[in-house]
Design brief:
49% of the residues lie in helices and 14% in strands. It has one domain: NADP-dependent oxidoreductase domain (TIM Barrel, Alpha-Beta Barrel). The chain is an alpha/beta fold and 316 residues long. α5 packs across α6 and α8 packs across α9.
């Protein structure tokens, strides 16, 4: 009897392991499938998406960001890899088509080489989406504009902060001039609110700003400031959004707040997400917008964020 029982237990354990492996495999395959898109009828029934003016372009107040598409989660290597595996060119196109159906008309990308595999076929499918490019290589602006055809080029925030800290802000100004020479709008992105303020105070011919809600480059810029944190940690300080939005309200150009969700740190539930959107729209100008990265693997973040923008970002 003992022998038979041991044999039966081995069969049970083996079968159980096989069953669990099949379930996990099926769950993984299902999880990586794109979520259902917003149907045309559903989109038509929604309230209009609030829009703002960017040069001659009228764009949605909510812009789809590119960090998740590029695999930047700010949550560690495992999350980065999962995002990269999910956002194939085909899924990225489906994601942006979903955004467009939900009323999000603009996408900010950060690397023409990585964006073209989904931007070109997206346009071939009839998308009318507007694009602007976050970049830092002045000598390659013309090539980027010719290939990706964005409406604007924006100097990368991390590079902006570093150049200003090193006394080389003129290189950022040269980028702005080069973008205008190529016939597109020119923007400056920064994590450090002092950079935004200085550009505005000096009267640069910049068309708009990208303004990070968190001063993530603080340790690099303020090298004499001791920040007690783990070496791989990022300084998401609670009061940073207040400091940046105070500057945003002072500059005349349109601003696009980004990392309003703290790179996922305000995403524990939809109540905290809504609160973050509410803070953003209550503390920026009516002529401003927000850029939000989305990862619709688990949940329809596109639909939820679009609804928050309709509800909280509507203009009087």
């Amino acid at each position: 009897m003992q022998t038979n029982k041991q044999h039966d237990d081995r069969i049970t354990v083996t079968d159980r392991r096989s069953f669990l492996a099949q379930v996990v495999g099926l769950a993984a395959a299902t999880a990586l499938q794109p979520k259902p898109v917003v149907g045309a009828a559903d989109a038509a029934a929604q309230a209009p998406m609030p829009t703002i003016q960017l040069g001659k372009h009228r764009i949605s107040r909510l812009v789809a960001g590119s960090n998740p598409v590029l695999g930047y989660s700010y949550a560690g290597q495992h999350a980065d890899r999962h995002m990269k595996e999910y956002f194939t060119p085909e899924r990225t196109m489906e994601f942006l088509q979903n955004c467009e159906r939900a009323g999000i008309t603009t996408h900010q990308f950060a690397d023409p080489d990585l964006a073209l595999p989904y931007i070109r076929p997206l346009r071939e499918r009839g998308s009318k989406m507007t694009f602007f490019c976050l970049f830092s290589q002045r000598e390659k602006i013309k090539d980027a504009v010719e290939r990706a055809q964005p409406v604007a080029m924006v100097h990368h925030g991390g590079a902006t902060d570093r150049l200003f800290a090193d006394g080389k802000s003129s290189q950022v100004h040269d980028f702005v001039k080069a973008a205008h020479d190529c016939g597109v709008l020119a923007g400056v992105s920064a994590h450090n609110p002092d950079c935004i303020k200085r550009v505005a105070d000096e009267g640069w011919e910049v068309d708009f700003f990208m303004t990070c809600f968190y001063f993530l480059t603080r340790k690099m810029v303020k090298k004499d400031t001791e920040i007690p944190m783990l070496d791989f940690g990022l300084p998401f300080f609670r009061d940073d959004p207040k400091a940046m939005t105070q500057v945003v309200r002072q500059v005349k150009q349109p601003c696009f707040g980004f990392k309003i969700l703290g790179s996922g740190r305000h995403c524990s539930n939809q109540k905290t997400v809504r609160a973050a959107f509410k803070f953003a729209f209550e503390n920026i100008k009516p002529t401003d917008g927000v850029i939000v990265g989305m990862f619709p693997w688990f949940f329809d973040e596109v639909g939820a964020n679009a609804q928050f923008t309709r509800e909280l970002g509507k203009l009087a």
